[in-house]
Amino acid sequence: MRRVILDCDPGIDDALALMLAVSSPELEILGITTVSGNVPAKTGAANARKVLKHMERLDIPVYIGESVPLKVKYTDAMDTHGRDGLGESFLPEVSGEYPEKSGVEFLEETLERERTSIIALGPMTNLAKVFQKKPELIHQVEELVSMGGSFKSHGNCSPVAEYNYWCDPHGAAVCYDLFASAGKKIKMIGLDVTRKIVLTPNILEYILRLDKENGEFIRKITGFYMDFHWEYEGIVGCVINDPLAVAYFLDPSMCSGFDSFTAVETEGISRGQTVVDSMNFWRKEANSHILTETDEKKFMSFFLSRILKKEDGSRWKEEELSLLQKL
Ligand code: RIB
Ligand code: CA
User: Fold this and answer.
1) Cα 281 to middle of ligand 2, angstroms
2) 320: phi > 0 → left, psi -120 to 50 → alpha, else beta; which?
3) What would the pLDDT profile of 202-215 be if each residue is shown by its tens digit?
4) Which residues of 2-20 are buried (b: 16+ CB within 10 A; e: fewer)?
5) How far apart are CA 287 and CA 186, in angstroms?
6) How many helices (H) and strands (E) does the chain have?
7) Which domains does the chain possess?
8) Closest approach atom of ligand 1 to CA 123
């Protein structure tokens, strides 16, 4: 069992990532922390609970993290994820108080107590707060996989920036700079690889036939996201970024890449851009592992074999998902 905290901004693709994580027995999910990104942290927490309820895993605690970025004005992504953050599915709220403890306090206390991995699926505000206060806790991080940034792929919220790192550029910059000082690397699952992971109507139809209940849930929350992709990127389907970060954490052979020093621009027209020194001009120790290649069919088989259930509650085996190979 690998101890992990999921730091996220659910968010439609975050929701799919949470479905994958809670369906993976190798993970001991210590908690979910939310951060303002796609939607405000409080809304994200409510959405995390909606996913956990669907997955019958309300035993996993959800902590509300930072409500605004370190310095820049907070800009949500409700245009992409809907006013409720789950594709305007407006699923019923899950009752119950949230823990007193904030997301930052939970992250800090957990890392103080034990080595833990973190899968970051939103802006890095919470992590920056923890590591600014106690940089030594970076040595307690078993592995940090961050969905964010981009090496050579164009941006998705500016010509050069990916949303998580654009939304809080100082949060990302602090993490990459402090990881450099600590001599550790952040595993960056950027747009170079996530853009290849497209949930198409064909695959959604396949999911519905394999597992009506989970298929309906996924259909409900992704319709809005598919419309957004058609309107703004001319894609039939939707790019599901976050589940790839979870899949890579579970199986590092899912993606390949290289070590590099990376800095995050915080100002001006290229705010949020990850400047990846792949040619080592700056002669600096690598603080990142940049993932650039992935096999989308391998991912999709892995993803579906984990989250989909047969009538008898058992899982589909990857080899049974052969139809996927023809999609
Ligand atoms: O740029 C894509 C990332 O930003 C994803 O994590 C999405 O959920 C949003 O947080
Ligand atoms: Ca996200």
Assistant:
1) 31
2) alpha
3) 999 999 999 999 99
4) eebbbbbbbbbbbbbbbbb
5) 6
6) 13, 11
7) 2-326 (3.90.245.10)
8) 10
Amino acid in position 210: L
Determine if ligand 1 sits within 6 Å of the CB of residue 9: yes
**Residue whose CA is at the smallest distance from ligand 1 atom 10:** 122
Helices (H), ranges, 182-211: 191-194, 201-210
| Residue with tokens 């007193």, as numbered in its chain | 100
DSSP 260-284: EEEEE--SGGGTT-EEEETT-TT--
Give the number of whichever ligand sits closest to the CA of residue 12: 1
> What's the pLDDT band for 317 if we cut at 50, 70, 90?
confident
Query: Average pLDDT of 222-251?
Result: 96
Instruction: Scan for tokens 């989308």, then name that residue.
Output: 296
- The secondary structure of residue 161, as a DSSP letter, is -
Q: How far apart are the first and last CA of the chain?
A: 33
For residue 39, the model assigns a pLDDT of 98
Closest ligand 1 atom to Cα of 122: 10
